[in-house]
Design a protein that fits this description.
The complex is a heterodimer of chains A (473) and B (828). Chain A is α/β, with parallel strands linked by helices and 473 residues long. Helix content of chain A is 34%, strand content 17%. Chain A has a single domain (50-228, 283-471), classed as Alkaline Phosphatase, subunit A (3-Layer(aba) Sandwich), CATH 3.40.720.10. Among the domains of chain B are: 2-110, no CATH class; 248-348 and 474-534, no CATH class; 355-473, no CATH class; 730-827, no CATH class. In chain B, strand 3 (488-491) and strand 4 (499-503) form a beta hairpin. In chain B, helix 10 crosses helix 11, helix 29 (720-728) crosses helix 30 (730-746) and helix 33 packs across helix 34. The chains are: A alpha/beta (473), B mainly alpha (828). Chains A and B meet through helix 1, helix 2, helix 3, strand 6 and helix 9 of A and helix 18, helix 28, helix 29, helix 32 and helix 33 of B.
Chain lengths: 473, 828
């Protein structure tokens, strides 16, 4: 090891002393290859084995979309509609708001099979349905938490306890970032704010360079991206040149390689200032692409913009895109509210799959779609006087999520729920299993991608998780 | 081969036999026995008995596995590999025949270092006695001399001044302070400076922050609803005041854990228990109240574990701790203290508030009563309460009212207890709280009738108007013994519903006994934590202080003094400091003074070529270290240098400018961020309102903890988002403009003269030739750019009379450059 190499390592001391195990050693080697010869904790790293997925788009449908109105047809509910289920069926059931004795609510949705695979989807999501052969539909998801915030923590961090890194942080920690000009982990949002808020994209006990960077819907796409009023690009560049020279001078004086990192950070910041506006500039997209997504149309515009941004980020090497849409928490007025969310999101979602596919990007982009839990077969009514007030309560025991691309098997249905959708009868997939499978697609053994904190080697899947082989292509 | 290895290992005596108890057993117990011990024998191997160990010591297997570099093959498979010293000890021990002491009992003979009683180590002798200023230096230097390493020279006076100013007050020195210190040629000028800084009111602000990280202070509840806690700051005031008054750490501890149990507690002692109230509150309506409370209690146990014991006691929530002597029972013993504790909102008025408030109360209550009567609220409320109580008594009968009950239980603390108290017997505060809640939503029946809904809304609006005119009266979040508590119960695998055996409060069984007999109180717990028999609290506390001054603790894992944490780099120094801390009456100021007046602290922080390979992390303390300022101080430095800082101490939190779209990411768009007006906008980072689900971006960009769990050390990062923040955030841009204005106003003359002032204000020093030249070049270049951008000039230039606006605008550029230098946000 040359002295220069040693100094490079030394300058990232805080990073290295925290990374342990197999990855620590890997990171060490990779750090030597940072951009511009300056060490970069986000430099691309190799996973445990070659993974099919290079990037992830997590379409987080906050609040819990109703699986039996979208993905998991339950005609048997008609028979029970308006009546409570026998206690034998609901024994031990704990729900957030309603009692297990609440009446059953049949779904008025029409389902029909789509594609070669013939997977059934509801009439609310015809566009998503048209991608049936690319989708791996997991009808047997389950989780441990039946309230939003804990449920979101579990889905995002693998634990209902606070303080753990989120999935985006894990993936960025494991793989680094391919982009030299954009953050490795980006957060997009539409609708209203989520229950989990920032805890859905924090880095927990990992260093904060792994936390998600918010891309905003209005104003600067990244906070503080544009120059203050009166600072022209020339002024900014001249200033940055002076900052660089003076920092370099101080680096020579003190020998502290952290200053080299600071210089690199300023250069990356400047590149980000150039790259982010290019990213958000859709002027070079064809009208047919914009129409495919529904950009510029009501009510899809915001969601479609995020989907198109996600594709453009994937093209530019962003590693993990968390796209949050809130809220699907339809305790009341289910029929109306669910339709609204589907009208907003269905077309852009399908467009994203199709567009990635036609560009040859779907194979190495993993899309994950779903919420922190599903909804009950039973009705929740908060206003007895209002017509069609009914909604559904949180249901963690059996719900649906879907994945596409990135090494997942399209045109597949995993698992089965009972005829009422209360419980899983085949191939249970816990949130940890989904996480383990996603990490597998990225090339990681989820048990070996660890981070040491308070004497324990933590992992995304906490103490659980099995790769679901049936989901893999 | 073995001998060769031994020669490398300086700490091992070369010719002495290996001491099994000291060199072998600790490693076996902390790294091997979890899998190869009494409880578990993976691969059929036991390393806690002679026969078992012989299987792998006689065939070379043990050394082969511990020396392997192959992940998965190397033992132990998790955690750091064994150190060269540990491996050498094993090799030497095996060479000597792997002797197994007959009387060895695993775990019994060897106590983990941090649990051992503290004895005061003798101050070691050093050769270069001229270097040492106090015993800290003897410990550090003796170690350096044993390795033939010389300490670094003392930092320059200017660096020292800026360093110790940041470390003790969190603010850079003013040019006047620089001048005064440079002019003071007395031999004890530095010590005088330190004493002045320790008396500064800003000392409490600086040192409150790491404590608030441990307490995980925030201004909102957290979780989905994340409601604002309007009086959380009252506890922060207590911390600042306690630190400023030099309150001994043992008293500081007792007040925060059990202030309410002290005889005739003062208001401040009650406010102190707000420490325990920094736990999050989950008001999501569907959450089982019992679960939400259980989570809070677990959090309190964990916070106490991290803060005083430096142990991850939370690992024992579901099972015995895998590595440390903390049993599942121990966890619930600590849990029981908080289980028997109730949350309270107390009156905690600031000086002068009570008189004005009481004087206004008759007016307020009269008008309030009048408004309520006018709109017929009492009758509506009575009916509403009856329906709610009926729904509480008969859940499942009316789904609509069930929802309202659930919702109220989540939103109103102690809702059911108060509701079930007859109105006449409620405290006036509780009575008002319930009425306020009623008129805030009206309940299902009333909201359906437009006329009643209108009455409720009108009453709400008029009462809110009335409240705005009421003089401020500060409350505080505190705790008190729980009136209904009977018996605590353990849980199976940490599941709040899975009740198991009854458990009484108590301390950790591996530690010293606790006072209070069979039913100790929180006061006994607090006294146990600061008992002279507790070796952990003083070690953990002095270590954290050290960490603030050197960027890393003597134990680097300041949150983990257990067997999986790192060992101290200077164990004797740690113990000496701990004993000194206690004999100095647990005085934090004395501890801080001792450290900052040492030669060790006063060294230059320049990197040393000779140590780059052997000690890149500065574990040996052969120099000081450059530390990026914590998030709050980055803000303070900008505000202070530019003259914008409003340096009032304490009080409610403030909201600086925050770009739109940040608060909106909170639940359902319910979080509002209304920018503070007037000088409040320019208060220190410590006072920035911390909304847990949508924290202030500048704090998060610069590695402030998320305040959801106790944090004992921040992890500094260096990211492009930080650069964008400093370059473009309007708060920092405004500071750059103000700095330019200040320089131009205060110093007339040539560019170079003005640059001197700008450097003095920001970096506390004068620019060197290169810096003058480079910035002068930049300034000319900027003037050139601006002559082609006339519109930019008016946007940038602060209005300075009799000055060319273009020059003023170019000076904004110069200020921006200086305030973006690494040095500006670094304490050297």
């Amino acid at each position: 090891m040359t002295e220069r190499e040693f100094r490079l390592i030394q300058s990232r001391r805080s990073f290295l002393t925290q990374g342990t195990c197999g990855l620590g050693a890997m990171a060490l080697a990779d750090l030597l290859n940072g951009a511009d010869g300056i060490p970069n904790p986000l430099a691309p790293k190799k996973p445990h084995f070659p993974g099919k997925a290079k990037s992830v788009i997590f379409m987080f449908m906050e609040g819990g979309p109703s699986q039996m109105d979208l993905f998991d047809p339950k005609p048997a509910l008609q028979k029970w509609h308006g009546q409570p289920l026998p206690p034998s069926m609901t024994k031990g059931l704990q729900l957030a708001f309603i009692k297990p004795t609440a009446a059953v609510l049949a779904s008025p949705r029409k389902f029909q099979p789509y594609g070669q695979s013939g997977i059934e989807f509801s009439d609310y999501i015809p566009h998503t349905a048209s991608c049936a052969d690319d989708i791996c539909l997991v009808r047997s998801m389950h989780t441990d938490a039946f309230n939003h915030h804990p449920g979101q923590l579990l889905l995002m961090t693998g634990s209902v306890q606070f303080g753990r890194p989120t999935m985006g942080a894990w993936v960025t920690y494991g793989l680094g970032s391919e982009s030299k000009n954009l953050p490795g982990f980006v957060v997009l949002s539409s609708g209203v704010g989520t229950s989990g808020g920032a805890s859905n994209f924090m880095s927990g006990f990992m260093p904060s360079h792994y936390q998600g960077t918010m891309f905003r819907n209005s104003g600067d796409p990244i906070l503080y991206l544009s120059n203050p009023d009166g600072i022209s690009p020339q002024t900014q560049r001249a200033g940055l040149d002076a900052v660089r020279d003076l920092n370099q001078h101080h680096l020579d004086r003190t020998g502290d390689q952290e200053i080299a990192s600071r210089i690199a950070s300023y250069e990356l910041a400047f590149r980000m200032q150039m790259a982010a506006p290019e990213l958000t500039d859709f002027s070079k997209e064809s009208q047919s692409t914009l129409d495919l997504y529904g950009v510029g149309k009501d009510p899809t515009h915001q969601f479609a913009t995020n989907c198109l941004l996600a594709r453009r980020m994937v093209e530019r090497g962003v590693r993990f895109i968390l796209m949050m849409h809130a809220s699907w928490d339809d305790h009341t007025n289910l029929n109306r509210k669910l339709k609204r969310n589907c009208d907003i999101s269905d077309r852009p979602t399908a467009a994203l799959i199709k567009d990635l596919k036609q560009r040859g990007l779907l194979d190495d982009t993993l899309i994950i779609w779903g919420g922190e839990f599903g909804r009950t077969p039973m009705v929740e009514i908060r206003n007895t006087k209002e017509e069609d007030n009914g909604g559904r309560d949180h249901h963690p025991m059996a719900y649906t999520m879907w994945v596409a691309g990135g090494g997942m098997k399209g045109g597949t249905v995993i698992g089965k729920t009972d005829e009422l959708g209360l419980t899983i009868v085949e191939d249970k997939v816990h949130v940890h299993d989904l996480q383990a499978t996603a990490m597998h697609c990225l090339g990681f053994d989820h048990e070996r991608l660890t981070f040491r904190h308070t004497g324990r080697d933590y992992r995304l899947t906490d103490l659980g998780g099995n790769v679901v082989k049936k989901m893999l292509a | 081969m073995h001998r060769a290895l031994l020669l490398f290992s300086l700490a091992l005596p070369i010719y002495a036999a290996v001491d099994f108890a000291k060199e072998i057993a600790p490693t076996l117990e902390t790294r091997c026995h979890v899998c190869h011990g009494a409880k578990q024998q993976m691969a059929g191997l036991r390393l806690d008995q002679a026969a078992g160990a012989a299987k792998v010591t006689t065939n070379g297997k043990l050394t082969e596995r511990i020396k392997s570099t192959k992940p998965g093959h190397r033992m132990p498979p998790v955690g750091a590999p064994l150190t060269a010293k540990e491996i050498a000890a094993f090799e030497a021990w095996i060479t000597e025949g792997a002797k197994w002491p007959a009387n060895y009992t695993p775990g019994g003979a060897v106590q983990h270092w941090s649990f051992r009683p503290i004895t005061r180590p003798a101050t070691p002798q050093v050769k270069k006695t001229s270097w040492t200023r106090n015993p800290i230096d003897n410990f550090v230097l003796a170690n350096l001399e044993s390795k033939n390493i010389a300490p670094s020279p003392e930092a320059s006076k200017l660096v020292l001044l800026r360093r110790v100013s940041f470390d003790l007050t969190g603010l850079p020195p003013t040019p006047a302070e620089v001048k005064e210190f440079l002019a003071d040629t007395r031999p004890d000028a530095y010590e005088r400076l330190v004493d002045r800084l320790l008396q500064s009111r800003h000392y409490g602000e600086r040192w409150a922050r790491p404590w608030l990280d441990l307490a995980h202070y925030a201004d909102s509840d957290g979780y989905e609803k994340d409601q604002v806690r309007p009086y959380a700051w009252r506890y922060r005031n207590y911390v600042i005041d306690s630190l400023n008054s030099g309150k001994p750490f043992d008293q500081f501890t007792i007040e925060q854990l059990a202030g309410d149990l002290l005889p005739n507690p003062t208001t401040e002692q009650l406010v102190a228990t707000g420490f325990l109230r920094n736990t999050l509150t989950n008001r999501e309506a569907g959450v089982d109240r019992a679960e939400a409370r259980y989570e809070q209690l677990v959090n309190r146990v964990n916070t106490v574990g991290t803060t005083w014991l430096g142990l991850a006691v939370g690992c024992a929530q579901c099972h015995d701790h895998k590595y440390d002597p903390i049993s599942n029972k121990d966890f619930y013993r600590l849990f029981a203290f908080f289980d028997a504790t109730d949350d309270r909102e107390i009156e905690a008025p600031m000086p002068g508030e009570r008189e004005q408030y009481l004087a206004a109360m008759p007016w307020y209550l009269g008008n309030r009563g009048h408004i309520l009567e006018k709109y017929g609220i009492p009758a509506l409320q009575t009916a509403w309460e009856a329906k709610l109580i009926k729904a509480m008594d008969h859940p499942g009968e009316d789904v609509e009212w069930d929802f309202w009950v659930t919702s109220m239980r989540a939103m109103v603390d102690h809702a059911e207890r108060v509701m079930r108290t007859p109105p006449a017997q409620r405290t006036p505060y509780d009575a008002r709280r319930i009425t306020d809640y009623f008129i805030s939503n009206g309940g299902p029946d009333n909201t359906r009738i437009p006329e009643t809904l209108h009455r409720i809304k009108a009453a709400r609006e008029e009462i809110n108007e009335l409240k705005e005119k009421l003089p401020a009266f500060t409350m505080a979040m505190a705790v008190a013994p729980h009136p209904d508590h009977k018996q605590s119960v353990m849980r199976i695998k940490g599941d709040y519903k899975a009740l198991s055996d009854p458990i009484n409060p108590g301390g950790l069984s591996a530690m010293h006994p606790m006072s209070g007999g069979a039913s100790p109180t929180r006061l006994d717990l607090a006294k146990w934590l600061v008992s002279k028999d507790n070796p952990l609290t003083p070690r953990v506390t002095v270590n954290r202080a050290w960490q603030e001054f050197f960027g890393r603790g003597l134990v680097r894992t300041s949150e983990d003094f257990g067997t999986q944490g790192e060992r101290p780099t200077h164990p004797e120094l740690l113990d000496w400091l701990a004993t000194q801390f206690i004999s100095d009456g647990w005085s934090m100021k004395k501890l801080h003074r001792l450290i900052v007046t040492s030669s060790t602290y006063r060294q230059s922080s320049d990197t040393r070529q000779d140590l780059a390979q052997t000690d890149p992390d500065n574990a040996l303390l052969a120099r000081q270290i450059r530390l990026r300022l914590p998030a709050e101080l980055v803000r303070d430095a900008a505000l202070s240098s530019s003259g914008l800082l409003d340096n009032r101490i304490g009080g409610p939190s403030i909201r600086p400018y925050q770009p739109p779209g940040v608060a909106e990411l909170g639940y359902g768009g319910s979080i509002k961020w209304k920018m503070s007006e007037g000088p409040d906008r320019f208060r220190r980072g410590l006072y920035v309102h911390f909304q847990r689900t949508t924290p202030y971006p500048q704090l998060m960009n610069f590695d402030a903890p998320d305040s959801n769990v106790s944090c004992s050390r921040r992890r500094p990062s260096n990211t492009p988002l930080q650069s964008l923040n400093l370059l473009n955030d309007p708060v920092f841009h405004e500071a750059a403009q103000s700095l330019a204005a200040r320089v131009l106003r205060e110093r007339k003359g040539a560019f170079a003269d003005r640059l001197e002032l700008a450097f003095a204000l920001t970096l506390g020093r004068t620019p060197d030739t290169m810096e003058k030249q480079r910035l002068s070049t930049y300034y000319d270049q900027q003037l050139g750019i601006l002559s082609t951008e006339p519109a930019a000039v008016s946007k940038l230039a602060p209005p300075i009379e009799s000055l060319d606006p273009k020059e003023a605008a170019a000076w904004v550029g110069v200020s921006r450059v200086i305030m973006n230098l690494d040095e500006f946000i670094t304490r050297e």
